[in-house]
């Protein structure tokens, strides 16, 4: 069994909880209050900055040059492509203020950057994997179950359910699995722990948006 298959099994309960979250079901049927989506957009713009830099650090640290190129391209994707989507959303939903980074996003972003900087690079690869994989799975799930007409959040759904995002997700899974083949059991356990922590933080990210959680 690949490392990724066993890792996904450990987070299946978290994924099952995610697709039942009100943020997701309301995004799917278009009923999500604008205020909650705006909070999400603002936080996600901060998140993508941290995520992009974490990917660039992995790109700098990873051994094989082709893997380095892959992570540098993922970093570019996070910073350029997704930010462009966010900026068009900022326009469309009249969100003109950049706002402040709130606790959950702060926690997740710094978890990714510190893992990418200080842990073994394969552990860092495992930490960033749910950002691809959970979004792809959630995007596909929403796409298959959505209310098709007049959903104001269609562009978001199409981005993550799209073929291109699917390809980079698969590429990240494959690279991480190949890297895992060289490791000891103890190192694989650390990878799975990082994968699980990031998956919990994906849940918390949507949860914090639904409840508009801010610093006290
Ligand atoms: C919180 C979060 N995780 C993953 C993605 C997908 O890159 C995103 N845009 N935001």
UniProtKB/TrEMBL annotation:
Keyword Hydrolase tagged: yes
Pathway named in the protein's UniProt entry: Cofactor biosynthesis; thiamine diphosphate biosynthesis
Domain of life from the UniProt record: Bacteria
Molecular function per GO: thiaminase activity
Annotated EC: 3.5.99.2
GO cellular component, one term: cytosol
Keyword check for Hydrolase: yes
Catalytic reaction list: 4-amino-5-aminomethyl-2-methylpyrimidine + H2O = 4-amino-5-hydroxymethyl-2-methylpyrimidine + NH4(+); thiamine + H2O = 5-(2-hydroxyethyl)-4-methylthiazole + 4-amino-5-hydroxymethyl-2-methylpyrimidine + H(+)
GO biological process: thiamine biosynthetic process; thiamine diphosphate biosynthetic process
Pfam families linked: TENA_THI-4
Residue stretches making up the Thiaminase-2/PQQC domain: 8-210
UniProt xrefs under CDD domains: TenA_C-like (cd19365)
Record keywords: Hydrolase, Thiamine biosynthesis
Family membership noted in the UniProt record: Belongs to the TenA family.
Role played: Catalyzes an amino-pyrimidine hydrolysis reaction at the C5' of the pyrimidine moiety of thiamine compounds, a reaction that is part of a thiamine salvage pathway.
This protein's name: Aminopyrimidine aminohydrolase
Organism expressing this protein natively: Euzebyella marina
């Amino acid at each position: 069994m690949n490392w990724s298959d066993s890792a996904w099994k450990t987070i299946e309960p978290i994924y099952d909880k995610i697709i039942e979250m009100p943020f997701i079901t309301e995004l799917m049927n278009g009923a999500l209050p604008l205020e909650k989506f705006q909070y999400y957009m603002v936080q996600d713009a901060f998140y993508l900055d941290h995520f992009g830099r974490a990917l660039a650090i992995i790109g700098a640290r990873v051994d094989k040059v082709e893997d380095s190129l892959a992570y540098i391209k993922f970093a570019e994707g996070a910073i350029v492509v997704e930010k462009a989507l966010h900026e068009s959303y900022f326009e469309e939903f009249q969100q003109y203020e950049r706002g402040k980074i709130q606790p959950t996003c702060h926690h997740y972003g710094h978890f990714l950057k510190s893992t990418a900087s200080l842990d073994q690079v394969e552990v860092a690869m495992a930490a960033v994997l749910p950002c691809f994989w959970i979004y792809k799975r959630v995007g596909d799930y929403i796409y298959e179950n959505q209310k098709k007409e007049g959903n104001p959040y269609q562009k978001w759904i199409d981005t993550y359910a799209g073929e291109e995002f699917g390809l980079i997700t698969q590429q990240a899974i494959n690279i991480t699995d190949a890297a895992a083949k060289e490791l000891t059991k103890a190192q694989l356990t650390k990878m799975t722990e990082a994968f699980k922590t990031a998956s919990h933080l994906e849940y918390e990210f949507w949860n914090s948006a639904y409840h508009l959680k801010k610093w006290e």
